[in-house]
Design goal:
The complex is a heterodimer.
Chain A (H helix, E strand, L loop, with lengths): L1 E4 L1 H8 L4 H7 L1 E4 L1 H11 L4 H11 L3 E2 L12 H13 L2 E3 L3 H10 L4 E2 L2 H9 L5 H11 L5 H15 L2
Parallel strand pairs in A: 1-2, 1-4, 2-3, 4-5
Helix pairs in contact in A: 3-4, 3-5, 7-8, 8-9
Chain B lengths: L14 H13 L4 H31 L5 H4 L5 H22 L1
Helix pairs in contact in B: 1-2
The chains are: A alpha/beta, B mainly alpha.
Chain lengths: ~160, ~100
């Protein structure tokens, strides 16, 4: 199974205790702009910067879409969604606004980064306790919307 | 407490704004750097306060503890659309896992 991943989702996954498992089971693809955004994060030596530095050391598959979807979003998101559309695979983003804008115009499968973790749980690669523990540490609450939604997601996951 | 390190970088402002900065700095007995730093810190704090308020309102709405009318007092139309989409997006994601 392969995923095209944006910067926020990649940093979330890189923060997972099970990132190695994720990489061995799933193909994570990035685009040129996502690589550039990761390089911009990597300039800083804070938590996200260090995660970006780790990700950049990995040999991730980098691809570019042939055509860009017309969307009022940032370049990185447009590349990720366009590539997922062409490759007929799932786009991973933690940006609910970008996902909504995409869904309003195009039929592209888009999921939050935690989807990969719940897949690990579904396929019994991690326990529910490990899932919840990971959710607490990986979902990067960069704004009010992420903060509220990830808390909601966490509560819903406890009911799984 | 150890010395906090600082980084120097340059800024480019219009002459009128520089004059205003200098005038304000003089009134406050501060230099340009101190005044700009204080303004930026104030701006960030204010934004953080607004974010906190939005977070609390969104969390309460997701728990069903406040009405949409009250939510509208804190979030604008687009933000409410994002929040509602986010909720159904999460539910849809978890529903797919449950199948």
């Amino acid at each position: 199974m392969k995923f095209v991943v944006d910067t926020g989702a990649m940093l979330s996954l890189a923060s997972s205790l099970h990132f190695g498992k994720i990489r061995s089971l799933y193909e994570l693809i990035i685009t040129e702009t996502i690589e550039h955004e990761l390089q911009q994060f990597a300039v800083y030596n804070d938590n996200l910067g260090l995660k970006a530095q780790e990700v950049l050391k990995l040999k991730l598959v980098k691809k570019m879409p042939r055509h860009l979807l017309s969307l009022p979003l940032e370049k990185g998101e447009i590349e990720v969604f366009s590539l997922a559309y062409e490759e007929k695979c799932i786009a991973l983003t933690d940006d609910a606004h970008a996902a909504r804008v995409l869904r309003e115009k195009f039929d592209v499968r888009v999921r939050p980064s935690f989807y990969v973790l719940v897949l690990l749980y579904k396929h019994k690669k991690i326990s529910k306790e490990e899932l919840i523990q990971d959710i607490d540490s990986i979902l990067i609450r960069r704004n009010w919307l992420n903060g509220a939604l990830w808390e909601y997601a966490r509560r819903e996951m406890e009911k799984l | 407490m150890g010395m906090e390190t600082t980084t120097q970088f340059s800024l480019r402002f219009e002459p009128d704004l520089i004059r205003q900065i200098d005038e304000e700095a003089e009134k406050e007995y501060k230099n340009r750097t101190e005044l700009i730093k204080e303004a930026v810190v104030h701006f960030i704090k204010e934004k953080e306060e607004k974010e906190k308020l939005k977070l609390v309102a969104a969390e309460l709405w997701l728990k069903g503890e406040i009405s949409e009318t009250n939510l509208k007092k804190v979030l604008n139309g687009e933000e409410i659309k994002d929040l509602k989409f986010g909720q159904s997006w999460i539910e849809e994601t978890l529903h797919e896992i449950r199948r």
